[in-house]
Write a structure and sequence with these properties.
Shape: globular
Radius of gyration: 17 Å
Structural class: alpha+beta
Largest sheet: 4 strands, antiparallel
Number of helices: 5
Distance between the termini: 11 Å
Number of domains: 1
Helix content: 25-40%
Low-confidence stretches: none
Strand content: 15-25%
Mean pLDDT: 85
Number of strands: 6
Amino acid sequence: MSHDGTERRIGRPQDPTEQTRGYRGKNKCHPVKNVLLINAVLTILFLSDTYGGSTHDQRMAEATPYPLPAGSRWLQDLGFLAFTLDHVEIIMPTKKPRGRALMRAQKVANRRMARRRVRIEHVNSRVKRCRIVHDTRRLRKAGVRDVVMEICCALHNFRVRLMPWQPMV
C-alpha cells in the first residue's frame, strides 16, 4: 500500500482570511489538497479530508486515521520523511547524504521504488482525468468539492475494475 498527496485548484476565495490560509504561492493559485491511500492493485482505498493548499502532506497524513492492519507494508516518498505508523513496515527511498554519493545497491533499490511510485502518480493523474477536478472550478457551495473528488475516485476504481492494470510488484 502507499499514500500520496494530490492537489486541485479552486477559484480564489472571497473571504480575505480564507485567501491567506489556503494560498500556497506555487503557480499563483489557491489549491485544496487530499491524501489518497492506494493498494497494490492501484485502486483507491481511502480519501482523506480536504485541507488548504499551504498544509504539508505530512501534516495531512498525521491527522488522517489510516485503516491499516498490523504487519502491513507501506510505501511512501521522501515528502513523508518523519511519518510513521505503529506495527507497519515503512519502505522509503534512501536519501543521498550531503557531499557523498549513494552506494550502487542503494541506487538500484531507489530505482525499484521509483518504478512503483510512478504508478501511484499515474493513479493521481487518472483521477484528474475528470476535468472538473483538474481545472479551476468555482464550486462554492459547502461540501460540493469533496463530493466531486469522491465521485472521481470512485470512477477511477470503476475503470480499474473494468480494465485492470498490472499490479505493483
